[in-house]
Design a protein that fits this description.
Radius of gyration: 17 Å
Shape: elongated
Helix content: over 70%
Strand content: under 5%
Number of helices: 3
Distance between the termini: 52 Å
Structural class: mainly alpha
Order of helices and strands: HHH
Length: about 100
Amino acid sequence: MMYALMIAIALFSSVMGFISEITRNNITHLENGRKPEAGASIFPTIPLVPAGVVLFAWILNQLHQSLGFLTVIALFLVFAVHWTIFHRKARRQLDKLKKKRKG
């Protein structure tokens, strides 16, 4: 059950990364006078990140019971807070560039 949670956390983190990549690329597009039509590639992130997270948790769990689970959850929470702050700033910048392009 906990390993399924680790996979879910890894997938959610990957989606957050895709959103950031698309936002950053759209900012770059607008700064260079292009339409904001950026995308993101899910391969190899989707198969490798969840596998890496599960392996990392499993190795730490071999050292001490539940250490891997607690570490992955703690790292995810730190990453999620950092991502939220970054993404809000990037969205504001993207929205400002979109308005400037229209106006």
